[in-house]
Amino acid sequence: IMYISIIRAGEEAGILNQLLPSLEHFMVEAEETRRHIVGAMTYPVVLFIVGILSVVLMLTFVVPQFATLFEDAGTKIPPSAAFLLSLSQWLQSYGWSLLIIPFATYFFWQWWGSGADNLRHRDAFLLKLPVFGQLLLYKNSANFARTLGALLTAGIPLLRALQITRTVIENTLLSYELKKVEDEVEAGITLAKALLNRNIFPVLLCKLVGVGEETGRTANILAQLAATFDGYVKNLIARLVTL
Known about the structure:
Elements: H1 2-13, H2 16-62, H3 64-73, H4 79-94, H5 100-112, H6 116-128, H7 132-153, H8 158-165, H9 172-186, H10 191-198, H11 203-215, H12 218-242
């Protein structure tokens, strides 16, 4: 949808030849960011799954053997060992119920995302998560700054550029807030002030967009902001991988 909207805007303004190189550059940078995120998170996800399976297997097959050792020794079982043995017995009897959790989580997540209001509430919840919420905010902010900067550089009017930029925002709450930003800009408020009024976007984005509007360098500053937010995303991913 985003690519179609950009091409349509280029045709409407008669600057398609200027817009296509920017679109190519945007696609390359977006793909590089996506590959970096997927590549960085693959190892922690695999390690997490293997760790969970290892613990389940140990509790199911290894820990029960300690009950026999305590019985043969005739000693009292320490509270910590008793807890592990009870957990092991529960897994042996009802461990199959754990298989329901992934399916229940999946169906709940799909239900929560059904309908525009529910989806906005779900995306608002994601943005409030520690570290992960910041990652989503900076990632979407980078896409916003990169796309809007490319469109303004190509000569697309601000209002039309904002309409197109909303299509690249994956988080529906941020997209909803950008629609309000668009309405305020149409009413005569500056872009920086409209972004600041929403109280959800990074303060750095609002402040530097204001500097860009005052100096007539909004497109250039947006491109620099996109690179800055990409750096934030990479740093946050590095912290997550380290954890």
